[in-house]
Write a structure and sequence with these properties.
The protein is mainly beta. It is 7% helix and 56% strand. A hairpin with a 2-residue loop joins strand 7 and strand 8. It is elongated, with a radius of gyration of 18 Å.
Amino acid sequence: MVRLLRLLVWAAAVPLLVEAADAGHLPPPGSDMAQVAGTASIRADVRGFSVGGFRGRTASLTVAGDSAPLPGRILLGAELPVHALWFTDIDDWELGLGDLVISVRSNLLHPDRLPSALWLGLTSELPTGNPDNGLGGGHVELVPSIGFDAVWKQSVIGADVGVAVAA
């Protein structure tokens, strides 16, 4: 009953969450995109799952942030989710931290006159969540990637491709 109450209180707060990074962090077109000193965000999502014969729903709250110690060249980031799992088959709940994600990105191509960037990145997922309760993966995962970002009308549009490697 206590788990259910904690989950209901947490779920009631989810609609109140908003993106902490404001539009002022986006540079105007034609300027250096990576002049951002840092951003922070909170994301919430709810989805269904089916893993290992169990089915249910998960609600996640993720706190994320990034910082540019070398603006225009290097971007460091981290995110930590909190998951609430409801196993519908056995009517049981789990609440706890998920896996910590740490990332680093380096710009390869960043023309001064164009609002775009080509970058290489490396993301690492560290096993901070309990895999026995479905809250984490239970292993270190490395994801090298390459991506492209462009500024268009005060929005950043981007795409990236990566390959996950379990370590």
